[in-house]
């Protein structure tokens, strides 16, 4: 009898049974989902992300490389679109609640619960937009996604609630019509201007990078953690403000003012601590978030050319994304070894891709290289200090650099590589070249080996 009465009471009073309320929230997301600006801005935001990925020129290098870490870092740059859009959307939602008086009147749920519920549609939209960016880019991946790459992706996702926290603070203190554009601008400006200043750790804290990574580098975790720490600091500030705001209607104006002053001081302290921690994490990395790569190399033994050069098997170790070039690299290496063996210049039986400064026959290849470029890369591996010489990373004298250039050109001529340059304009090069030409073939081999050893010692 009581059950029937209860049912009729629900029916007569117009109150919906509990099961319908739960079903409505589960299937349709409830009022925050149906009324959020994120539902109406979803398609424009996703379209903007797709257009950005398709038109962003540095992404072409990452796509061509096939390297997962480079692709992830480039795809993460889509935050330049996602963060301002999510910030503007959430600022509009919160400003609408504030204008309607919902944030200032007592209600059954805490203000923090109301804000979080209102922000869920925007957060889901931002995460889905980043997933679209990663999907478009990683579809061309030729290497495994590592734990470093996954953490970097998580770092980009954490930036979304951090941007929403900035939007929340703006919406609480500014007019409702000004909050969305102001939140968009304030989330956009740090992304654009942080890479333009000489304070490099700010770029890591910002988490936005224009370019990807070379194949011999991997994403360093400390710069990613620096960005995460600052993002968490922004979210903590937002939580503090919401908690104080939610209790301001229960106390006198004087007490409320004192609480807001303490809240402001607390937010300043939290952000200073977050920035100092982020700076300590990111400071050793300059402007580049990479470190030497430690995994992802595939080695394969190739048949040598023992009949003509006396060499047996050749071991070729390339990064996963370049493994399709293994046979072409082995073929060019056998030819180069044959030319060098003819003049008495012996070479290792193992050729590898590795970080700059590694010992042995170290090369750097790219999927877009043709046969001629591959041969030049292989010959350059015999004097692998060249990239660091050209970028000023070696402490060398002018005389040793001139000797290095002469030795480099000799290797090019012997192996049939078209890498000759006009050295006539380099002061002092003619005298070194004249002395080198006066040596016998065997003396030239000894001289070139001595020069390469000298350069390697200077670049350690």
UniProtKB/TrEMBL annotation:
<feature type="transmembrane region" description="Helical">
    <location>
        <begin position="150"/>
        <end position="173"/>
    </location>
</feature>
<dbReference type="Pfam" id="PF23866">
    <property type="entry name" value="DUF7224"/>
</dbReference>
<keyword id="KW-0812">Transmembrane</keyword>
<dbReference type="InterPro" id="IPR055648">
    <property type="entry name" value="DUF7224"/>
</dbReference>
<keyword id="KW-1133">Transmembrane helix</keyword>
<feature type="domain" description="DUF7224">
    <location>
        <begin position="316"/>
        <end position="449"/>
    </location>
</feature>
<feature type="transmembrane region" description="Helical">
    <location>
        <begin position="37"/>
        <end position="55"/>
    </location>
</feature>
<feature type="transmembrane region" description="Helical">
    <location>
        <begin position="224"/>
        <end position="245"/>
    </location>
</feature>
<keyword id="KW-0472">Membrane</keyword>
<feature type="transmembrane region" description="Helical">
    <location>
        <begin position="257"/>
        <end position="277"/>
    </location>
</feature>
<feature type="transmembrane region" description="Helical">
    <location>
        <begin position="112"/>
        <end position="138"/>
    </location>
</feature>
<feature type="transmembrane region" description="Helical">
    <location>
        <begin position="67"/>
        <end position="92"/>
    </location>
</feature>
<protein>
    <recommendedName>
        <fullName>DUF7224 domain-containing protein</fullName>
    </recommendedName>
</protein>
């Amino acid at each position: 009898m009581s059950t029937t009465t209860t049912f009729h009471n629900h029916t007569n009073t117009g109150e919906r049974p509990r099961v319908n309320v739960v079903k409505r929230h589960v299937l349709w997301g409830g009022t925050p989902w149906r009324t959020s600006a994120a539902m109406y801005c979803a398609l424009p935001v996703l379209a903007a992300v797709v257009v950005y990925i398709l038109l962003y020129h540095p992404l072409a290098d990452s796509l061509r490389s096939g390297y997962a870490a480079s692709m992830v870092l480039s795809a993460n740059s889509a935050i330049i679109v996602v963060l301002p859009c999510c910030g503007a959307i959430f600022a509009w939602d919160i400003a609408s609640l504030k204008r309607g008086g919902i944030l200032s009147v007592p209600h059954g749920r805490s203000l923090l619960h109301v804000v979080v519920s209102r922000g869920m549609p925007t957060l889901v939209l931002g995460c889905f937009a980043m997933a679209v960016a990663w999907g478009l880019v990683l579809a061309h991946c030729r290497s495994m996604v590592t734990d470093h790459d996954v953490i970097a992706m998580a770092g980009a996702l954490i930036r979304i609630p951090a941007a929403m926290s900035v939007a929340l603070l703006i919406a609480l203190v500014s007019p409702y019509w000004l909050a969305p554009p102001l939140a968009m601008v304030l989330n956009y400006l740090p992304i654009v201007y942080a890479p333009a200043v000489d304070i490099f750790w700010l770029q890591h804290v910002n988490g936005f990078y224009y370019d990807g990574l070379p194949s011999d580098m991997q994403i360093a975790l400390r710069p990613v953690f620096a960005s995460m720490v600052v993002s968490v600091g922004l979210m903590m500030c937002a939580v503090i403000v919401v908690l104080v705001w939610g209790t301001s209607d229960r106390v006198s104006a004087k007490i409320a003012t004192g609480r807001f002053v303490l809240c402001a001081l607390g937010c300043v302290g939290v952000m200073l601590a977050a920035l100092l921690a982020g700076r300590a994490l990111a400071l050793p990395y300059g402007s580049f978030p990479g470190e030497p790569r430690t995994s992802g190399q595939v080695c394969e033994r190739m048949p040598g050319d023992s009949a003509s050069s006396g060499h047996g098997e050749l071991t070729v170790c390339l990064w996963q994304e370049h493994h399709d070039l293994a046979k072409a690299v082995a073929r060019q290496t056998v030819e180069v070894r044959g030319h060098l063996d003819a003049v008495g210049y012996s070479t290792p039986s193992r050729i590898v891709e590795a970080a700059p400064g590694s010992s042995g026959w170290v090369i750097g290849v790219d999927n877009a290289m043709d046969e001629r470029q591959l041969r030049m890369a292989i010959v350059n591996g015999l004097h692998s200090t060249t990239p660091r010489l050209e970028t000023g990373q070696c402490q060398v004298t002018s005389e040793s650099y001139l000797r290095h250039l002469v030795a480099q050109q000799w290797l090019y001529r012997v192996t049939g590589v078209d890498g000759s340059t006009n050295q006539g304009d380099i002061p002092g090069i003619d005298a070194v070249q004249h002395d080198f030409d006066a040596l016998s073939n065997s003396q030239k081999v000894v001289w070139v080996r001595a020069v390469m050893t000298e350069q390697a010692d200077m670049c350690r």
